[in-house]
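[Q] Does anyone have a clean structure-token version of this?
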Amino acid sequence: MLITLAQPPSDAEIDAWHAVVSAAHVRDLPAAVPEPNRSETAGKLRVPPFNGREVHLAAVAEDGRYEGVASLLLWTEPPNQHAAYLHKLVVDPGARRRGVGALLWGAIRERLAAEGRTSVSTRLELGGAGEAFVDSLGFVKMLPLTRYVQRVEQARASTRRLPLPDGLRFAHWTGVAPGALAGSLAEAHNALVDAPSGDLAARPPHWDEPRVRAAARLVGERGGLLVTTAALDTSVSTDGAVVAYTEAVLHTPHDTRAATGDTVVLPGHRGRGVGRAVKRHLLDVLHDEHPQVREIVTSVADGNGAMLAVNESLGYRRERPAGLFEMKV
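[A] Here you go.
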């Protein structure tokens, strides 16, 4: 039986969903990768995204256990109302090869057609059951990625603190950007359009102050923390303006592994070591304010040579390959 989760879902629905996700994690990922926390699962299921509508599906066995789950994001922002993102399609290891994945995919395909979506993308680990499954459906790998891990204390010990060029100063905050910085942070987000994208049908959205604030609030509303370190140009105003930033997400306040989001340097400040300095500063912020964080994980496109060089100099080491896949509907 296939069901669509209520919104918000009940505790029993969250427990059943989390059981599938945890079992699949243990089977499919290296032991060093921390298991998802139930509160992380609950946040993602209970709090809707700011940039689209999510559909959560579950394949239910006769005894009420979930055998598989899927989450589909239907973007509602321009320029991506034609596209969708498959956040998750996971089958419990004990229920695999019984058609559960095909059942979930059939329902997703019907929803995509009903919504008039012409493409759907997803991110997967390479070499596992997920890649084989999407290959069988006709997905194409558009952008090869690699996940890298940095150990916070080891990186702090082996790399010195890096100064910023004259006229710039460090800043950091947790949650929503303070005051006037939200506007310049949005401008910095928009500078990410030149990063490798694999020619996906979904395009980078336009960032403005409301979107910056909504994205930060969503992390908090789902029970996590968004930590940002930035370089500010103090010649622009008293508060300064963001010319570079990097972000780290803790899905729960107790996470021992943080995940970095974007790292961006405005074109006029590139080639001066600003990105490296901001990422090194993040290590000190996490050490001082979130000492339980032992590792930082990031995903970098294999063709992004500049960021790969920065990360290698700061002690990131390869963990596992991944990729962005897309299918035309």
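[Q] Thanks! Anything notable?
[A] The CA atoms of residues 22 and 36 lie 7 Å apart.
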